[in-house]
Design goal:
It is built from twelve helices and 26 strands. It is of the alpha/beta class. Strands 2-1-10-9-11-12-13-14-15 form a nine-stranded mixed beta sheet, with helices on both faces. A four-stranded parallel beta sheet has the order 4-3-5-6, with helices on one face.
Length: 475
């Protein structure tokens, strides 16, 4: 079971620090006790092994206890992004067929109160033991979907364990490590924080939410907490590099940084390596469906400002293949998700050759893999996956919209941001479109630019001319 290494640490060093959030600290023993109380409450509500349970809590100690409680009950967790609009959260809860929603205080207005479990009402106890096969689902992580709705990626205990074990060995994690956590639990980056870190007996320190927009304070926090490792996104690291006052804030304890989720602009990476000369850096690569399928230990002497960095070598026992006709990267191996969660069951996403086609273009050059962009239209914005089709579906549902198209525009701080071209009826304004999107889409999916056009540009075959659209919206 996924929590087996953590449970070993609870026996081996029960009083060691496990989690820290602001001034609140929780030992391994206390984390286990709180998780067990939640598991007992879930079982009392009739939750059966394998059933999805949503967690409606912000990243932090309470949320970590809830996730572990769900796993101890034998269920699988569905972490919710509390910043998402209510219609999106309601869709996820319904689509996942969630049987309970774990949260704090009273249930949100959009939720059936019968599904709600307040963690404050969970009493101490030991849950009934459950048998958890390795292929049982541990988590369903919802990402932006090309069908116009969020899509759940189903991760098994075996899958997450394979990644966590590999990562812990790669980073030589020990109980002496103090790891910073900034990844929301609905991101696959969080599987490193929760299972590689706590499975190794190290402590996890939640970065205060406000510090992501205050880089000088963030670097001071990393120094004060004697952080030894951190797994995050390039956009935050680039912000820290240029605004974090690293020259006056030496991070002496920081032995490694891992980055993933988007392309790291090489000039910013060069500046980061210069500011942190004794810190080892790693580029992890892979969509949520593979967690991590490639990795590259950053070699400072090979960084050239005008060149992108490699995605490197196969990770965690994965096998990689490049399709000859398209250059698409295919993956199979132990970290691959079970499939997509649809209609209460797992639906395979493998192709006819039993590989997962990532939709990424890649090449193999001198024994290293390199990334050359997406084959499809998916965007990566500050580590989030954004499917333009999902934004277009919301826009096209607005009365008075005659047509729309979404493309990505380059942003040095976020990778790419969505931009919207739209054809409107006379009575509809762009301000009204913005209001609808703000109610129905999370902030990272809000278009950064809007352009009202009389008609959308199309190619001779009638298909959308996305290249010309990108030029229009980038001007």
């Amino acid at each position: 079971m996924l929590l087996a290494p953590f449970l070993h640490q609870c026996q081996h060093q029960p009083d060691a620090l496990a989690l820290q959030e602001q001034d609140r600290q929780v030992s391994y023993r206390q984390l286990l006790q709180q998780a067990q109380s939640i598991a007992v409450a879930l079982q009392a509500k009739g939750v059966r092994p394998g059933q999805p349970v949503a967690v409606h809590l912000d990243r932090g100690i309470d949320a970590a206890c809830a996730l572990f409680g769900v796993l101890l009950a034998g269920a699988c967790y569905v972490p919710l992004d509390l910043k998402n609009p209510a219609p999106r959260l309601s869709f996820i809860v319904a689509d996942a067929r969630v049987c309970v929603v774990v949260g704090s205080d009273s249930a949100p207005d959009w939720l059936d109160e019968n599904l709600w479990l307040d963690i404050a009402n969970c009493k101490e106890g030991v849950p009934a033991p459950v048998e958890i096969p390795a292929e049982s689902l541990a988590a369903i992580l919802y990402t932006s979907g090309s069908t116009g709705q969020p899509r759940g990626v189903a991760l098994s205990h075996r899958t997450v364990s394979a990644f966590a074990s590999w990562a812990a060995d790669l980073l030589t994690l020990t109980p002496a490590d103090r790891i910073a956590s900034s990844a929301p639990f609905f991101f696959d980056l969080s599987t490193f924080d929760l299972y590689a870190v706590l499975g190794s007996g190290a402590s996890l320190h939640f970065i205060p939410a406000g510090l992501s927009m205050a880089p000088a304070r963030l670097s001071a926090w990393l120094s004060e907490q004697a952080i030894t490792g951190w797994y995050t996104v390039p956009s935050l690291l680039a912000f820290l590099t240029y605004k974090g006052n690293l020259a006056q804030t030496p991070l002496a304890a920081l032995r490694f940084i891992i980055f993933a989720g988007e392309v790291f602009p090489t000039p910013a990476l060069i500046d980061l390596t210069t500011s942190l000369p004794r810190t080892t850096l790693y580029n992890f690569f892979g969509p949520t469906e593979t967690n991590v399928c490639c990795y590259w230990p950053v070699q400072r002497e090979r960084l050239v400002a005008e060149q992108t960095i490699p995605i490197g070598l196969p990770a965690a026992g994965c096998e990689l293949h490049i399709a000859a006709d398209t250059g698409e990267l295919w993956v199979r191996g132990p970290t691959l998700a079970s499939g997509y969660w649809r209609d209460g069951q797992v639906e395979s996403f493998l192709n006819a050759d039993d590989w997962y086609p990532t939709g990424d273009r890649a090449s193999l050059e001198q024994g290293e893999y390199r990334f050359h962009g997406r084959l499809g239209r998916m965007l990566k914005c500050s580590g989030y996956r954004v499917e333009p089709a999902e934004i277009e579906a919301v826009v096209n549902a607005i009365v008075g919209v005659k047509g729309c198209a979404v493309v990505g525009v380059d942003d040095p701080t976020a990778g790419q941001r969505p931009a919207l071209a739209v054809v409107l009826a006379d009575e509809l304004t762009i301000g009204e479109v913005r209001k609808v999107l703000s109610r129905q889409l999370p902030a990272y999916m809000q278009p950064s630019r809007y352009l009202v056009v009389e008609e959308l540009p199309r190619l001779a075959n009638g298909k959308m001319d996305y290249i010309y659209l990108a030029i229009m919206l980038s001007a």
